[in-house]
Amino acid sequence: MEETTEPSGPAVVPSRPKIPYGRVAYPAIGYKMGSRQMVTTVMSPVTYVGTVGDRENWDPLQGTGTNRKEDKNHRQAIAKYIEETDDYVLNSVLVYYSLDDAEFMADDPEAPISMGTLYVRPGAKAKVGDGGHRTSAYGDVIEAHRHGDDVLHRLQANGQPVIVVLDDDQARRAQDFTDLQQNAKPLNASIAQSMDRRQAINMMLLEEVLKGGRVSLFEGGKRIEFLTDSPGKLSPKLTGFKTLRYATGTLLVGTGPRSSRAWDEAVAVEIATAGHDDALQRMVDFWAGFGALPEVATALAIPSGMVKLREATWLTSANVLYALAAAVREVTHGTNVSIAQAMKAAAAIDFTRAGNTFHGTLVEPAKYDDEGNLEAKEKAMTGRDAWEGAAEKLAARMRQN
């Protein structure tokens, strides 16, 4: 039996860093990006708004700020989204503290990524590096509901991810901001709109007009491009979802709304007021009528038909689709003319590139000198004024037919 000896002294316990006295503590994860200490934590939106300072717009002459000029419409849109959407989603915000105002204590100081605690000096205000509009929008909602109601209680119970950089160098903050913008790629409209299921028009087009097979023209959605806003020259697809959506909404509400937000609201109100079935039938009648146009029907019946349709006519042009939808709205709204009748009248209109239907509106004709020499090639015109002018011409032709 081996002889054992008692330890000669007390066991050595590793020393732990002293917890900063009086500081506000937030559970966090610490890590490095380059040489700087980064910390990710979560606060309720109500708590978060109270931890940040005033918005600092970029001023290189004074050496302050990192934020762009505030867009009030963008701020209001975010506030409306937060206020009206229970299951909202916002990205993390990026804020900065000086090393005097905050420090991170890792549970495992040797680990490159570790759980731990962020300690912030009471009263210290973080500088918002990225997320100024989200921060201001939160503040607007909290102020509007400060007396306490369901919205405020929801925000108090929710979390907002916050990335904290322990670095107060203004030049580096500014560089971070521009790097973040350059490395971000926003969704194109067709992807974003087809993913947005809160808007009735998107749901109706996706689930009923396309996937539901209500219009054979679209072949269950295979004729619609979702990944880009415009199909390529050799694509078998007719148009992008962005164009399909805007033309359909224009059919429903006309050309009155002049901003994206006003247009969205007008379309939503029209669908709610007219009723789902009535609005859906108008969509179906218009696009079924479009599929019956002679040039389109011919293209659908042959291989590479969409390529030929794109080469020979203006019917795949987004501006022409907007103009046609606006013209049908003008001819049928408040009259006894049905959408089906209007589209039959449209079948007699010359949509070919060789014709002159859109000269002076969507097409600037080729120019020749007195001897017949070409001076300027035919040029397609874009923009709202151009397609609204084309809509007036199309409406007049429909009435004649």
Description:
This is DGQHR domain-containing protein. It is a single chain. By secondary structure, the protein is an alpha+beta fold. It folds into two domains: 24-183, no CATH class; 189-400, no CATH class. 43% of the residues lie in helices and 15% in strands. It contains 15 helices and 13 strands. The protein has helices spanning 45-51, 72-84, 132-144, 150-157, 170-183, 189-195, 200-210, 241-253, 260-274, 276-292, 294-300, 305-312, 318-332, 339-346, 384-400; strands at 24-33, 36-43, 93-97, 102-106, 114-120, 127-130, 160-166, 224-225, 239-240, 363-364, 367-368, 374-376, 379-380. A seven-stranded mixed sheet has the order 4-5-1-2-7-3-6. Helix 2 crosses helix 3 (132-144), helix 6 crosses helix 8 and helix 8 packs parallel to helix 13. The N and C termini lie far apart (114 Å). The model is unreliable at 1-7 (pLDDT under 50).
